[in-house]
Amino acid sequence: HSSRYVVCHSQEEYILNMLTDFRRLHNKSIRKCSTVGQSGRAPDPEHLQKKESGAAGRGSMGSSGYAMRGTRFDVAFGAGRLARYLDKWSEPDGWCDKELVHQMGYYAETAHYKLHFINEGDAFENLWVEVYSDSDVNDNPRSTGGHIVLLSGPAGSTHPVSWSSKLQAITATSSGDAEVVEWGRAAKAAVKVAALVERTRV
Asked: pLDDT (tens digit, 9 = 90+) per residue, 169-185?
């Protein structure tokens, strides 16, 4: 007999420590905000001169990436976008520094967020793989695609198990092309999850 249960994973303590380290290393205040990135178009990293961000910048981005891979798929796009500038931090109007501070403000506002695995009574053998993907169009100049893979069940269970947001390897000529490229990446991730589920059921 199966019953409903909810499992929550939290990185709140890790994120609060990350914010403390950020304030100490950068000597900057953090203003809480409800959006993960700045509004407006990011500068084109292909046309910026290389310049190391320094240990503080790399450390903060590494910490953010760890949180994103662990439980915070909501920051995947913003963290992935900023990571493209680690060796080109000298953007003329300081966009990189502003973006990093903005993202830390989002973490400060949402440090309590948790990743929920919700089972509505579905037996493990009845779960299936469900995947969602999307992309933008020609973001400097290539598109950024993202996807999330879930284990779902007939009673409404949802288990997020894999997610990604990254710059596509090729330049798409239309929004349709960009979405097809991302669907290919999402399908590969879904196949891996499905194979893991099948091995677990045996």
From this structure: 888 888 888 899 999 99
Cβ within 8 Å of residue 166, ≥6 positions away: 80, 144, 145, 146
What token pair was written down for 65? 């990436």
Query: What's the DSSP call for residue 36?
Result: S
Task: Report d(CA 123, CA 4) in Å as an integer.
Answer: 10
Residue 51 sits at φ, ψ, to 5 deg, of -160, 125
Answer yes or no: pTM beyond 0.90: no
CA 185/CA 174 separation, integer angstroms: 17
Beta strands at 114-119 and 5-10: parallel, antiparallel or unpaired:
antiparallel
The structure tokens listed for 34 are: 């409800």
Residue 86, C-beta contacts closer than 8 angstroms, at least 6 positions apart: 52, 53, 57, 58, 61
What is the identity of the amino acid at 153? G
pLDDT, tens digit (0-9, with 9 covering 90-100), for 110-152:
999 998 888 888 887 788 899 999 988 765 678 889 999 998 8
Three-state SS for 141? coil
Going across the sheet that includes 5-10, the strands are 5-10, 114-119, 158-167, 144-152, 128-135
Write the CA distances from 51 to 57, 62, 127, 139, integer angstroms.
Answer: 12, 17, 48, 22
Q: Which residue has 């000597």 as its token pair?
A: 27
